[in-house]
Design brief:
CATH architecture of the largest domain: Sandwich
Number of domains: 2
Strand content: 25-35%
Radius of gyration: 21 Å
CATH class of the largest domain: Mainly Beta
Mean pLDDT: 88
Shape: globular
Number of helices: 6
Oligomer: single chain
CATH superfamily of the largest domain: Jelly Rolls
Structural class: mainly beta
Length: 368
Amino acid sequence: MADSSPRTTFAYDEWMDSRGVPVHRGFFVRDVRTMELGWWEERKCDTAFIQLEGQQGVSEARVTEIKPGETLPPYKMAIDEVVYVVSGRGVTNVWSDQAPTPRTFEWQDHALFLVPHNHYRQFGNMQGDRPVRLLHYSYLPLAMSVVPDADFFLNNPYQPPAGEYTGRQDFYSEAKVMTSGEGLRWHRIEGAYWYGNFFPDMRAWDKLRDLNRRGAGGKSVTIQFAGSDMSCHMSVFPPGRYKKAHRHGPGRVIVIPGGEGYSVMWQEGEEKVIVPWQEAALFVPPNKWFHQHFNLGGEPARYLALHPPMQFHGHAEKIEDRAKDQIEYVNEDPWVRQYFEDELAKRGLKSLMPEEAYRDPNYEWKAA
């Protein structure tokens, strides 16, 4: 009789497991800066893969460490790759067969940038006293479900048309605000968004807009990478507050640029998972699991969410579904508020959530 059980591994998983380096699984990574790595001979560096619950078959997360003063061998990918600088200061060269003169740019802690498809990239550590750690994010698992051959994406000699690089000479100039929808690929954005391929410091990025529908008086910035279907957003919310629970599709990797707190994740009707976080923590809300973010520190907390393809964004991106995919404060489990207040009390702090928010579902937040 044929096996009717669902498939739990994909072509990407088989390739990833064959690399012989650590693969971190579960629900979260406590600190990407200190997580275990292993030597990857092919890339001549220490590395590790991250495949948390909710990523399988959709998104890749990988960490690269560059030793002090070293430069890694270049490599090429047939798909776009987003890179977030977890720690360190360095330089990247990007070039293609059609534009062989490298585009060179420097970066530091908390920078974010995109390396476009069919381009080579080479990363170097400009510091002589400490290593660099980079977080790489791509859709390689999804791509390998279509063509189950890693070499097709990592060693493909295909050369795109000569004109593809035209107009990308300031590809890595600082991003610009857009309001007209020009260049927008993934979904309608309310208000302005930031368009570009280089964001110098996500911890200090202050070009934000109010995001009142998620509560807590928070702000957000949506990022669309130029010439790519890849996107992300960063949310910032004040101390002593927490955001409304919501859910969406799989593959969204969340990394913390700054702040102290925790998130709660749960499948409807199931036990809750508590994810502690601080700078450089990383987690993934599994598919259609509710999740909620809480700030326990004395400063604003911020999280950077790297988006899966638009096909996987899930329910809560559609206005008509928000009633079933977002839990208002007036409807939440009383445990949520009590646990938050208890955690604050352990630190000698009190909740700054307004009482009206727990009584009025239409409470109008004033952004901090």
